[in-house]
Amino acid sequence: MADFWSGKTPCWNFSGCTERIYSRCAAYQNREFPCWEVAGTECRKILNFDWECWDCKVFMAYGHRD
After folding, report:
1. Fewest C-beta atoms under 10 Å: which of 2, 3, 12, 26?
2. Is residue 34 a contact partner of residue 4, using CB atoms and an 8 Å limit?
3. Span 54-65, mean pLDDT?
């Protein structure tokens, strides 16, 4: 299984999440995908407001818009 975050700073480190938060995050548990492709991430739960992935600093660093 490939790890999307291999060679990159993972979103949980990039965003400064504590181990308590990232250890239960869907992005951490599904590392083969970038966080913006994983439902139920902790940042979505914690921030709890309407925002788009392309507004996120992690997406700006590693994502792209088609």
Report:
1. 2
2. yes
3. 84
Structure tokens, 16:
């400064």
Count CB-CB contacts under 10 A for residue 8.
14
Q: How far apart are CA 8 and CA 49, in angstroms?
A: 27
Taking residue 33's Cβ as centre, other Cβ atoms within 10 Å add up to 14
pTM for the model = 0.81
- Summarised one tens digit per residue, pLDDT across range 11-57 is 999 888 999 999 999 999 999 999 999 988 888 777 665 677 788 88
Q: CA 4, CA 33: separation in Å to the nearest integer?
A: 6
Q: Which pair of structure tokens corresponds to residue 9?
A: 């700073």
